[in-house]
Amino acid sequence: MAKRQLLLLSSSQLHGYEFLEFASRDITDFLSKNKVSTVLFVPFAIKDHNAYLKKVEKPLNQWGFKVEGIHNQENPVDAVEKAEAIFIGGGNTFRLLKALYDTKLVTAIRTRVLEEGVPYMGASAGTNVATRSINTTNDMPIVYPPSFEALKLVPFNINPHYIDAEPNSKHKGETREDRIRQYLEEKDSCTVLGLREGALLHVEGYNAVLKGFTGAKLFVRDQEPVEMKIGEDVSYLFKDCA
């Protein structure tokens, strides 16, 4: 089996930065290290595929990479099988996963990434679908995919855009932590890594390190959440969640 290579961003944008700019060094290093010249972009989480493609092209072209939209390819599965790298962008996770199933890309992407080592980048919804399931997404179920099971490129779940509760807030609704704890009450749940805005997870094989500007919070069933700092090695998640 080839080495798994993933770059999973909590979001595409961080306050004070242009689109993808906060992760520019990590993205360019990730793609350059793998000798990638052209990235296959999957825009299915947003309705206007062409507009989304142009938005992604701007920074990646500036950094020296070409971008091809999978929606412009005659056969999406063939496009994945020929891709040098795959990038799935954010938007609505339910819409995205349904499209991946409809186009028969779930198995195709999983095979290329896990068995052939093709680099995979995800942002927001693209990070959600890289995990075991989309049960911990923040999105509304505007469409219904045939399953909540996702690409399973990692054996745990991620909650992108993780937000800590404001202690002085007058809002009395459920916090993000409350909702993740509710998920963990289910018998088929798995560990959840809450990635704050500006954080990302870099995976090589069974090694995983937190990068970016902010940290994360780890949620494990029947345990108190644990703070994770940038630069922290979380490779043990592959063993604990297998």
UniProtKB/TrEMBL annotation:
> Which SUPFAM superfamilies does the entry mention?
Class I glutamine amidotransferase-like
Q: Where in the cell is it found?
A: Cytoplasm
Q: ATP-binding: present as a keyword of the record?
A: no
Give one GO biological process term: proteolysis
Keyword annotations for this protein, in alphabetical order, are: Cytoplasm, Dipeptidase, Hydrolase, Protease, Serine protease
**Molecular function as annotated in GO:** dipeptidase activity; serine-type peptidase activity
Q: Which reaction does it catalyse?
A: Dipeptidase E catalyzes the hydrolysis of dipeptides Asp-|-Xaa. It does not act on peptides with N-terminal Glu, Asn or Gln, nor does it cleave isoaspartyl peptides
* Domain of life (superkingdom): Eukaryota
- Record InterPro entries: Class_I_gatase-like (IPR029062), Peptidase_S51 (IPR005320)
What EC number(s) are associated with this protein in UniProt?
Answer: 3.4.13.21
Say if the entry is tagged with keyword Iron-sulfur: no
GO CC annotations on file? cytoplasm
What this chain does, per the record?
Answer: Hydrolyzes dipeptides containing N-terminal aspartate residues.
Q: Which family does it belong to?
A: Belongs to the peptidase S51 family.
For this protein, the record's PANTHER family field holds: ALPHA-ASPARTYL DIPEPTIDASE (PTHR20842:SF0), PROTEASE S51 ALPHA-ASPARTYL DIPEPTIDASE (PTHR20842)
Protein name per the record: dipeptidase E
The organism encoding this protein is Ceutorhynchus assimilis
